[in-house]
Design a protein that fits this description.
Length: 203
């Protein structure tokens, strides 16, 4: 009887598509082909919206998918941020905070899964708010300086400061969750990714 790996499904394929779209986006943005670059981001956003819905609707959620989805999100966000920061140096300090936060969270999540064999927490409200503020700050500053040629330094500083503070707050809250999971003895917090991937096979 034929065996099918349950990790090979549409939601995970859409997540991989988001990662693959990063390369074309960088190329188009760097060569000032704005429309194709925007199309890449739109496709990335649509895939991000659809993969979760499809996974829930058709019961195709997997541990691998739950690991890949935030990685794809953060890689995309970081790529967009770096591209914009190159053109608008004032965004570099916020980008630095973003990178430090995400690198620390990636290291922590990797340690939990591979070493401690614990299930990382999902996205919390403060993490989502920090991401929203991040995009708002980037969007407002880029729009004012790039489109309308307006420079309001106090506004820039206020936006960047509020966003950086909230992102650091989110990092602190996630660190507390990390410590809780690290010392948890609850079976529901345990995970063995390698065993799960091997077990995700059905006739």
């Amino acid at each position: 009887m034929k065996i099918r790996n349950k990790n090979i499904n549409v939601p995970n394929a859409l997540t991989l598509l988001r990662i693959l779209l990063i390369g074309p986006f960088v190329y188009f943005y760097c060569t000032r082909q704005i429309v194709p670059a925007v199309v890449c981001l739109v496709l990335s956003g649509l895939s991000d919206m659809l993969d979760g819905k499809i996974a829930r609707r058709f019961n195709q959620s997997t541990e691998l998918g739950q690991m890949l989805d935030p990685i794809a999100d953060k890689l995309t966000q970081a790529t967009v941020a770096v591209c914009l920061a190159v053109d608008y140096p004032i965004l570099v300090p916020l980008l630095a905070v973003f990178v430090i936060k995400e690198v620390l969270m990636l290291i922590g999540g990797t340690y939990l899964v591979l070493k401690a064999k614990k299930r990382p927490s999902g996205a919390m409200w403060y993490g989502k708010v920090g991401t929203i503020l991040f995009y708002i700050s980037f969007g407002v500053i880029v729009a004012l300086r790039g489109i309308w040629k307006i420079k309001i330094l106090p506004l820039d500083v206020a936006l960047l400061s509020i966003t950086a503070i909230f992102m650091l707050y989110a990092l602190y809250r996630y660190f507390r969750i990390f410590l809780t999971l690290l010392h948890s003895t609850d079976p529901k917090d345990s995970i063995d990714l390698k065993a799960d991937i091997k077990a995700r096979r059905e006739p």
